[in-house]
Amino acid sequence: MNLLEVLRTAVIAGEGPDVVMTMGPAEANRYAKAGTLIPLDKWVQEAGLDKMLPELALNVGKIEGKIYSIPKTFESMGIIYNKSLFEEYGWNEPVSRDDWVKLCETAKGQNILPVAAGNANWRPTNEHFVTVYINHYPGPEVVYEALTGKRSWSDALFVESVEMFKQDFLSYWPEFNVYATLTAEDFVPMIAQRKAATMVVGSWGFQWLVDPGYWVSQDKWGWAPFPSLREGVASPSVAVGIGTTLSVNKSSKNPEEVGKFLVWMLSNKEMIAKMLRDFPGEWIVPIDIPQELVSPEVDPVFFEHVRTQNEVIQKGNYGYTTWTFLGPETWQWCYEGIEEVWLGRMSAADYMKKWDEVFKKELQEGVVPPIPER
Fold it and tell me: Is residue 21 within 8 Å of residue 266, measured between CB atoms?
């Protein structure tokens, strides 16, 4: 989090790197709103990148009709679990609320932590879990209505989803005082060593699985979409988003070269295919990659994740990650305010009321990313 603040300070002061890299459009839009980025439309169009990338991926980088950020990583949320552990106990991937509760309670009964997690080095980790609950309980269509201003975020469905999450967090995640001390270096080995059963995580989690420093056993891993939390909400479904964005710093001394480099890098299919093998989960550009370019060494579980992600998007069963589709202030409240709910200092209703107030202000200001029709 210190690096984030250092980058913000440098860029706002008219310094910093030529390429401004953020963890998602909500943060990139903060820079764009402050007037510190250069529009990318010219370079995107010259390279034909606007014809390669889906409309969804480009629209979220727009402020007042101009593109200020482009996606390096298109990702989705799901569950990574110890497959060997599941096979030993005969556990199945959850597809419903009842399945999820049964899995978590059964794991607890074996003295196994149901969900390993921690936010010691990245406080916005909190929002990963908020994202799945506010998508998989109300449903993606309800979230779409809220993002487009047609439904209040203080709607009962959102309040109920946060109340459900609070109870699950207190029951199935590490205790908060422990959670606040754990990093991925701590909790991923817990899953590999069968001290924990799952982690609720985005596509970036696959980078840890292929690193023996994190996955410290010979156990197999698996991936599954997060389950539906309410009857009538489609399954499988995934909350999709953009995990890393790239922009050109307005203070760059070589903006033309930097802009051309960015669009070249994101349209280089051979390089992107190699990244799928070498850095699974950290470089998923949403463009078509010819099968012959994809190495047979790509992790098959990761490949299944990407395939499922693409299928549910095509079928329209996709939700919306908070760090991609909210304005910057609403995004910050999402991950900071939820701690007040966990600790009993604020009700779920008050948390979502403030969320709604901040969102409406940002929607009026034009800093909420444009949302394409479903």
Answer: no
SS3 91: coil
| Structure letter (DSSP) for residue 69 | -
Structural domain includes residue 235: no
Question: Are 139 and 234 contacting, i.e. CB atoms less than 8 angstroms apart?
Answer: yes
CA terminus-to-terminus distance, the chain? 34
Tally of domains within the chain: 1
Cα separation values, 107 from 91, 189, 217, Å = 9, 17, 19
Q: What is the pLDDT of residue 315?
A: 84
How many other β-carbons are positioned within 10 Å of the β-carbon of residue 54?
13
Helix 97-109 to helix 156-172 angle, to the nearest 10 degrees?
A: 20
Cα 253–chain centre separation: 32
- 101 domain-assigned: no
What is the predicted pLDDT for the residue at 23?
Answer: 80
CATH number, position 275 = 3.40.190.10
pLDDT at position 336 is 98
Measured CA to CA, the distance from residue 235 to residue 238 in angstroms comes to 9
Q: CB–CB of 77/143 below 8 Å?
A: no
Residue 263 carries which side chain, given as an amino acid letter?
A: V
Token code pair at residue 246: 């790239």
pLDDT in tens, 144-193: 999 999 999 999 999 999 999 999 999 999 999 999 999 999 999 999 99
Q: Which residue positions in the chain have pLDDT lower than 50?
A: none
Q: Among 362, 280, 292, 374, which residue's Cα sits nearest to residue 328?
A: 362
Q: How many residues does the chain have?
A: 374
User: Would strands 70-82 and 318-320 be described as parallel, antiparallel, or unpaired?
Assistant: unpaired
Task: Please answer whether residues 227 and 94 qualify as being in contact, where contact means their C-beta atoms are separated by less than 8 angstroms.
Answer: yes
- Supply the pLDDT for residue 214: 97
CA nearest to 325, candidates 36, 62, 133, 136: 62
